[in-house]
Amino acid sequence: MAEGFTAAVELRELSRRCGNVAANAGINLRVEPGTIHGVIGENGAGKSTAMKILYGVMQPDSGDIFIDGKKCVWTSPTDAIAMGVGMVHQHFMLAGPYSALDNILLGAEPRRWGMIDRKRARARLEALASQYGLPVDWDRPIEELPVGIQQRIEILKLLYREARILILDEPTAVLTPQETNDLFCNLKKLRSEGKTILLITHKLREVMAFTDRVTVFRAGKVTGEVQTAQTTPQELASLMVGRKVVLNINVSPASPRPEPAIEIAGLSLAGEGAGSRHSLSNVSLRVNRGEIVGIAGVEGNGQSELLQAMLHPRDARCRTSGTVQFLNEDVTAWEALKIRDLGVAVIPQDRQHEGLLLERPVSESFLLGLQRNPAFSRWGLLNSGNWQAAATRAMKEYDVRPGDLTMPAGRLSGGNQQKLIVAREFQRQPRVLIAAQPTRGVDVGAIEFIHERIVRARDEGAGVLLVSFELDEILALSDRILVMYEGRIVAEFNRGGVSERELGLKMAGS
Amino acid sequence: MRKILQPILAVVLGLTLGLGVTWIAGESPWHVLRILGRGAFGSSYDFGMTLFYATPLIFTGLSVAVAFHAGLFNIGAEGQLTLGALAAAAVGALWPGLPAPLAPVLAGVAAIVAGTCWGAIPGWLRARRGSHEVINTIMLNFVAAGLASYVALYLLKNPDSQNPETRPMGAGYLIHQFGFFGGAPVSAALPLAVGTAFLIWMLLWKTALGFEIRAVGQSESAARVAGIDTGKIRILAMAIAGGLAGLVGIGEVLGNAGKFRLGFSPDYGFLGIAVALLGRNQPLGVVAAALLFGALHKGTADLDMETEHVTRELSLVLQALIILSVSAEGLWSWMKKRGQT
Amino acid sequence: MMMQIFASTLRVSTPLIFAALGGMFSERAGVVNIALEGIMLIGAFGAAVGTLVTHSPWLGAGCGIGAGVMLAAIYGLFVIRLRANQIVAGMAINMLAMGLTPFLCKTLYDVTGSTPAVPISERFQSAPLYLSWGLVLVCWFWMKYTPAGLWVSFAGEHPEALDAAGVRVNRVRWAAVLLSGVLAGMGGASLSIFLSSSFSRNMTAGRGFIALAALIFGKWKPVPTAIACLLFGFTEAVQIRLQGVILWGTEPIPVQFIQILPYIVTVLVLAGFVGHSRAPKALGEPFRRG
User: Fold this and answer.
1) Is residue A3 part of a domain?
2) Do B219 and A353 count as a contact with CB atoms less than 8 A apart?
3) pLDDT at residue A361 is higher than 50
4) Contact C166 A114 (CB under 8 A)
5) Is residue B219 within 8 Å of A356, Cβ to Cβ?
6) Does residue B339 lie in a domain region?
7) Nearest CA in chain B to C277
8) pLDDT in tens, A437-486
9) Which of A171, C84, C148, C194 has a Cα at 20 to 30 A from A155?
10) What is the phi/psi pair of residue B244, to 5°?
11) Which of residues B289 and A148 earns the better pLDDT score?
């Protein structure tokens, strides 16, 4: 394949260990100049590590980087920038209180008598902005600008530094569909101006629609490099996970009971400040016992705020109006602990930060939230015997490996961490289950296990509210689907009553 | 194993550096070390004084440690213990005639309550107003010092003394002093401190509340999702920390002076940070570290007399160097790496 | 009497302004500076000794600054290089200064209490006062208009962004911490050879913390911080003026309540009861790449 051309970027046999894990083991990657090159793989496949090495934030243990055919060894991002390599990070590198202008010219300030020549910088930026069609309000503090504009500022930052090779790490994770479209229009314009773009993502759709070539990562290795036009999403997916995935789990039809598990009426959260768009406006929903209700939507459309408001209705930062009922009890004025004691199990969205005590032994993460349960404590004193025995039993039943209770929870793999949380939450004999992104970044085996458990909980009479950003998961599990967009419920469908395309349109607000 | 080794190495490193300083000043480190040893352990009186200094350090060390387990930095132990001692002395000065069993209990409760309230303020500010407890506790230390000076100089001034102190309390308030320390004021406060350390160990590791405190300190977000009222736990942890610091007042006022003396504390509150740090926030470790710092404090007291150049402030230098050594995260990870290869 | 208080306000706020500006550099760069108190103390000592030796306040102040920078360098070594907790290390530095100064004093002059008095002709008359206000303007200009000022701001607000922009975060932090050593050292010097005639034990008496409070009160910005220093200096001046004065009744006015005012105000400001003050986002967090 076009070996005669000089590649814009070439990585040869790049390796890097992070702790005990080989984050990259012999990565080979070739990017043709003037193309959009997709780099795809699951979370933890090593994409980000490879890009961090390419950008100079990390150093490889072995292997070489070539830019335009020249071998490069760099010790910091400065070297990479000097060679024309720039990166838009997943979490933007922007300081909220400072102006767009200052954020862009940071580290590359034009000077006049030792002072920053903001006038000159602005003139150059105006020119760049009109050349690429990326208008920005230069003087507003970053925190007052919407996310899409912030990303635009990140791209301008690279253009301002005359980067020829742009790396974008999961650029669409926080964007609305409209903003995503804008982004890709802009990227195409950049490509036509001769820039080379590396797009790191785990979304197949984006890769298929916008890239010229794709490299697939799996478990620290490259499993394939293909021309986008000559591949299919199925082929890419199987390269990503190593076998043909069938996302059709057999879910038996639900037999919902008429008893409500969750009833929410008119739930709202007023946003504060100009920068916050998505709060909650007048959300009402009902989940019956014995059914799974899925909430579909792009990340950041009020899903986490909704869960916060349901679990902490007393807290004025979580709920400004509306009522929450669980199992026919109005809990709006209740403390969180009392709500959970009704039999409300929660699989939190961010398992590392919201589900576990990472530095403490597994047994303590198991106890978290159950410490006042009569089985584990009496008169405020912990019953260590019962607690350890229950933890040992649960580790077996939920196949958490290794089953060592004294190991810090942070050292478990993602899948096992999630199983540990599921094991703990199911100790409550849940009558209500709230599962947010239950399988994000989890291996295939654990996904199936967790899905199966969720369905079983439903069949045993729990009302399940499932929040997921993965359409496939929503479509496979939900008996009813609600779509959230900009803090509202904008549509409702029954199982089988909606196509993926239609759902996607609703999620995009149309 | 490393958990014990690291503090010991830090102490050795700190002492070596500190004695190096005395050597530069032209004093034989060996000579200084001998004075330190004799000053701290040479006689039953010396040892008694070491224990006397260690007692408040156990309380303040526990105070810092409990707050630390909840993810909070209690720099306010100094203010909390000041108000604790002041409250105990105020009870004694206002009702001097109370009889023995009731009087010390009442004064002790007053000390705990005062410390608890003073500790709860920064806890509340952090939990409900989001302002950082480090700055707040530092500021409240100065406020407490100002209040104490006002009370000692105006409200409850001792008319028979030139020193800034409160009126002496009645005889019924004084608690038992042990006889076998040659007159050193080792009182029932010492067993109280050790007993408190045990109770705090029980609290932290054997109760649901202790688990909640530690969970909040480990991961506030996870604790919150688990239904724990993190704000309440933080206020509670700071209140407990304040109460522990307030207990210092018992040993000083009821067990030693019989009144509140302005400036009685040689920064017990700040030293508590060092004690907790060196004791790795474990109650047993706190007791051990408090003994060590008590010994340093007592041992250096004789340096003014017995050496040419070294002063008793050497204890501050030694303590500072020990704290610096134990806190240098990078140093220890570097040594660990060297140890592995 | 008002003029007197006004003049004395200007004088007593001088060391606060120096120290608070020093604190500003360090904290804006993301390094908490509880060590200000200790750096001031060693600066005061260095300046007194330096003046006694050289008979020049300027050279003496230079010695104070040198001592301050040295202590700040130790602080920097621990918090930047060795990633020690900044609060703990800061407290330790304060203790170190409190312990070292009487010790050095005894070694040099064979007394632990204070250094011999510096003759009035060898002391500063008013230079530090003008210098401090000049520096306020310089710092304001510097933070706002120079690249280095921008780097300092980003080192404290978003160090990863600064690193990604190709500037070494820890170098910026080092520079900021050393600069805070210079300024706090000068603050100490103005205490011992401008406001008084010698170094005496613990002569800072919490002024480092007041400077810190002024910094918070002034929202980590040079000009408002200097104004806060004036305010706190005013309470100190009033308190000195009213010491032992009997305005009504038979008892002198309890100056303690004036004394604790700055601290209470700081707590209220931080809690958002009076205005609002937001710390740099990455304040207190060691920076490590990757």
Assistant:
1) no
2) yes
3) yes
4) no
5) yes
6) no
7) B131
8) 888 777 767 788 888 888 888 888 888 999 987 777 888 888 899 988 87
9) C148
10) -60, -45
11) B289
